[in-house]
C-alpha cells in the first residue's frame, strides 16, 4: 500500500506541527542529521497555517491532536494548509490508529500524503524514507492503519463500539435522553456524554446542519440489528 518514492530530494525544507516540545526537537534533529532543514516548528494548528504560507515547505509533518481540545486540530489544519497551498505534501503522525482521520486525509485521492504512528519515528530509516516518499508526491501509510481500514471495510461500524457504548446506543434507540440513560445505567451524566461522543466518533458522524447525529446513530444501530 506504499507507492514508489519520487526522486530523492536535496535541500528539503519541512514544517513541523507538534505540541510536544521533546518530539519537535527530536524530529528536527533527526531530520537535520539526514540533511533535511526544518524551517519552522510550531505547537498548534494556527501556527502551522502561518508557517506553511510563509515558508512554502516541501513537506508538513503534523500531529493529529493539538491544542486547544486535542482532538483533530492538527488534521484540520493540515487539510486547511493543503487548500491554501494546493499539492502541499502532508505526513500526519498519530499516537494511535484513528481510522476516520486516516480516511479523511486520504479521501482526496491525491499523492503527497502519509499517515504514520508516532512509534515509527524511532525507526529512523523507516521514518526518513516516509518523509522523502511523501515529499516526493508518493504515499506512506502505516501498516497498522491499513490493517484496520481493511477490517473496517468488512464490518458494520457498530461492531467497533465497546459493549457499554452499544448499550448506550441501544438506550438511545429507545428514545432515552442522556439523563435518562445515566439513571438507567447508574452512571454520571458526564460518563454518558463521553460514551455518546465516542459513539459519534466511531460511527463517523460529524456535526451537520441538516441531519441529527443522534438519529443517524440510531439508524445505524437499527441497520446492524
Largest sheet: 6 strands, parallel
Q: What's the number of domains?
A: 2
Q: Return the structural class.
A: alpha/beta
CATH architecture of the largest domain, by name, is: 3-Layer(aba) Sandwich
Strand order, main sheet: write it out. 2-1-3-4-5-6
Reading the helices and strands in chain order gives EHEHEHEHEHEHHHHH
Query: What's the CATH topology name of the largest domain?
Result: Rossmann fold
DSSP helix fraction: 40-55%
The geometry reads as elongated
Cα Rg: 20 Å
Q: How many β strands by DSSP?
A: 6
CATH class of the largest domain: Alpha Beta
Superfamily at the CATH H level of the largest domain? Response regulator
The CA-CA distance between the termini, in Å, is 33 Å
Low-confidence stretches: 1-8
Portion of residues in beta strands equals 5-15%
Average pLDDT over all residues: 82
- Discrete helix count: 10
Modified residues (4-aspartylphosphate): 63
Domain Response regulatory: 13-133
Domain HTH luxR-type: 154-225
Protein name: Two-component system response regulator
Write the layout of secondary structure elements.
Layout: E1 13-17, H1 21-33, E2 37-42, H2 45-55, E3 59-63, H3 73-84, E4 90-94, H4 99-106, E5 113-117, H5 124-135, E6 139-141, H6 143-152, H7 163-173, H8 178-185, H9 189-202, H10 213-224
Parallel strand pairs: 1-2, 1-3, 3-4, 4-5, 5-6
Architecture overview:
InterPro entries: CheY-like_superfamily, NreC/VraR/RcsB-like_REC, Sig_transdc_resp-reg_C-effctor, Sig_transdc_resp-reg_receiver, Tscrpt_reg_LuxR_C, WalR-like. Residues 154-225 form the HTH luxR-type domain. By secondary structure, the protein is of the alpha/beta class. Helices cover 49% and strands 13% of the residues. Helix 7 packs across helix 9 (189-202). It is elongated and about 60 Å long.
Amino acid at each position: 500500500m506504499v507507492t514508489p518514492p519520487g526522486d530523492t530530494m536535496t535541500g528539503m525544507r519541512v514544517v513541523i506541527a507538534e505540541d510536544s516540545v521533546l518530539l519537535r526537537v527530536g524530529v528536527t534533529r533527526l531530520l537535520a542529521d539526514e540533511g533535511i532543514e526544518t524551517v519552522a516548528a510550531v505547537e498548534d494548528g494556527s501556527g502551522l497555517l502561518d508557517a506553511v504560507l510563509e515558508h512554502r515547505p516541501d513537506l508538513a509533518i503534523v500531529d493529529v491532536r493539538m491544542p486547544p481540545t486535542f482532538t483533530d486540530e492538527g488534521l484540520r489544519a493540515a487539510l486547511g494548509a493543503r487548500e491554501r497551498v494546493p499539492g502541499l505534501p502532508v505526513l500526519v503522525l498519530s499516537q494511535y490508529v484513528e481510522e476516520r482521520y486516516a480516511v479523511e486525509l486520504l479521501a482526496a485521492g491525491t499523492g503527497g500524503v502519509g499517515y504514520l504512528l508516532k512509534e515509527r519515528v524511532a525507526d529512523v530509516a523507516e521514518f526518513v524514507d516516509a518523509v522523502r516518499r511523501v515529499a516526493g508526491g508518493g504515499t506512506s501509510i502505516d501498516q497498522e492503519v491499513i490493517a484496520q481500514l481493511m477490517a473496517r471495510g468488512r464490518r458494520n461500524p457498530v461492531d467497533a463500539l465497546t459493549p457499554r457504548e452499544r448499550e448506550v446506543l441501544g438506550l438511545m434507540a429507545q428514545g432515552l435522553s442522556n439523563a435518562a440513560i445515566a439513571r438507567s445505567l447508574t452512571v454520571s451524566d458526564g460518563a454518558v456524554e463521553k460514551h455518546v461522543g465516542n459513539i459519534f466518533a466511531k460511527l463517523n458522524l460529524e456535526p451537520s446542519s441538516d441531519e441529527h447525529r443522534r438519529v443517524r446513530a440510531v439508524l445505524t444501530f437499527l441497520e446492524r440489528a
